[in-house]
Amino acid sequence: MDYIRLAKDNEQYCINIRRELHKIPELELDLPKTIAFVKKQLEDLGLEYKEYVNGNGLSCVVEGDQEGPCLAIRADMDALPVAEETGLEFASTHPGQMHACGHDSHTAIALTAAKIINENKDKLKGSVKFIFQPGEEIPGGAKPMIEEGVLENPKVDYIVGMHGGHLADIPTGNIGFKDNEMMAAMDKFTIDVIGKGGHGASPHLAVDPIVISGEILMGLQKIISREIAPVDSALVSVCKINGGFTQNIIPDKVEMMGTARSLDEGVRDVVEKRIEEICDGIAKTYGGSANVNYERFYPVLINDVDFTSKVRNVVSDLFPDDVYEMQKPVMGGEDMAFYQQEVPGCFMFLSNIKAHSDGVCYPNHNSKFDLDETLFYKGIATFLATAFEALK
Question: What pTM did the predictor assign?
Answer without folding.
Answer: 0.95
